Amino acid sequence: MSRLEPVFSACRAEARAALIGYLPAGYPTLEGSKDVLRTMVSAGCDLVEVGLPFSDPVMDGVTIQRAAEQALRGGFRVRDLFGVVESVAEAGGRAVVMTYWNPVLAYGVDRFARDLAAAGGLGVITPDLVPDEGAAWIEATDAHDLDRIFLVAPSSTEERIDLTARSSRGFLYATSVMGVTGARDVVSSAAPALVKRVREHTDMPIGVGLGVRNGAQAAELAAFADGVIVGSAFVSAVRDDTVAALTTDLANGVRQAPAAV
Amino acid sequence: MARGQLAPTPHDPDERGHFGPWGGRFMPEALIAAVDELAAFYEKARVDPEFLDEFARLLRDFAGRPSLLTEAPKFAAHAGGARVFLKREDLNHTGSHKINNVLGQALLTKRMGKKRVIAETGAGQHGVATATACALMGLDCVVYMGEVDTERQALNVARMRLLGAKVIPVKTGSRTLKDAINEALRDWVANVDDTHYLLGTAAGPHPFPVLVRDFHRIIGIEAREQILAKAGRLPDVVAACVGGGSNAIGIFHGFIDDPSVRLVGLEPGGDGIETSRHGATLTAGTPGSLHGAMSYVLQDSDGQIAEAHSISAGLDYPGVGPEHAFLKDSGRAEYRPVTDAQAMEAFALLSREEGIIPAVESAHALAGALVLGRELGPEGLILVNLSGRGDKDMDTAIKWFGLGVES
Fold first, then answer.
1. Which of A28, A209, B189, B383 has a Cα at 20 to 30 A from A224?
2. CA of A51, closest CA in chain B: separation in Å?
3. Spans in chain B with pLDDT lower than 70
């Protein structure tokens, strides 16, 4: 049933984790974000997360905040998101969207799911929507056959991990640290413990994110996760014009360790 | 003291914090455990005699409650001759109603065994109150304040620092209250094990709208007894300013079961709601999720949050507490905008006629009372929540009225 199942099963067949790269749509410009995402796809991202720039991104650190601000200042509109997703699909890539909840509400919950599915999007990550409040979203994503990725955190109780796993489809997003997005020097020690706890509740693939910035860190996570999620480092790489090199480094990283399952 | 102040009411939300379609928890999973913990501690505390006694003692011996009820006859002469009474939250320690909530939440912080408190502030009233409670109870205190607000409320920044708090100017977004809340949430998610987020208004994710309201219910409980004693009857109207809505919800609840009493919230109309420069969320906003709850929000058609504008830093917020959204929809309360100019006129009028300098926030409620009094006529009886004193607003007044010393 999951739209993302082929991504993870292909990686599993190669005994490795999937590389999942994030970029805000509209950053550095609308056309520029399409170019960067195409590069990420061709250089080795198995899946891309297209971020929807939001005025009040409470889960993001300063790197992604500034990228979102730049996109909004550049005139980015929510309707532009679907063209960005479409361009990923046309380039042979696979895309999910990562968005705060209020823009989805404003666009219309069902309409958002419908238009994303029509653009070739496979799912949505919702960092500030928990399943407890997700009834309308679950209905819309079912109706339009989109995966929905909720988050678990080191602070989640067993009961909440269970609820979140049962409510998700495609994969589960495990935040490896208690904190906001942003590249870090050391990969969190909380991540392996969290992934182990989550696996008690579900066979669903688990993507781990927050803080990864290079191939060596990606390899560390790939040893126990099904997907390695990289965000702020890609935003910084756009500024430094090193997106292809970063993608290659990370893609090598996820191939260095045997996959967990 | 009112032992039942925190008792559950028929107006409480459901167990996940919904007031009808409003409220709830629209926030990261990483913080759900913290708000669950807070809700569990609060549910125990609100019926625990030991907690209630300690809270009552602090309100009496530290905050200076009960606050007075003062009639304002010379001011009332400008309000169509209706009688006007002022609930004097400006006389509380630290100069506003905010102390009620911070003492309650600081006590909860101690109960939860947390050592560090973070808070957001707009005008600085909540920041000063939080820094004060933390000094009293030996808690580390960090206050996030938009850079724009640190400039227009420099005196309060100094007060917070003197009280031992660390004040962090927030330089992202519109650099005002909403961005200070964003930054406090980012701190909280990274430090939630030892840190309590002492939210300053009756907004945010459940249980904040309930517990902040309850810590302020003392305002309405006292005011109801006082006005019955002084005027011999219930007021026709209770008027309060609404930014996030904490002082308003506190006084409204004293009268919510008295159907003859109209509850009127006065919102910051800025340059006028026909312009884009205002903060009148309930008058001109649309449903959305901001800072953890569903409520009315000022936003564009894409759901991007708008910047609010008000002469009052404490009302300069594009969201509002979810219970106000519920009361608006149910019709139990009504909400009206007051422009900067109307508020400043009322600010000057109360100062000159009654010898009371109100906070610019509270001046919005006073401006509302001037209009409501004319509507009610000489038989009318109005209770205004004077939520804070205006010492902090002298810089604003100097600029508005040209009160500087002639050279």
1. B189
2. 14
3. 1-3, 405-407
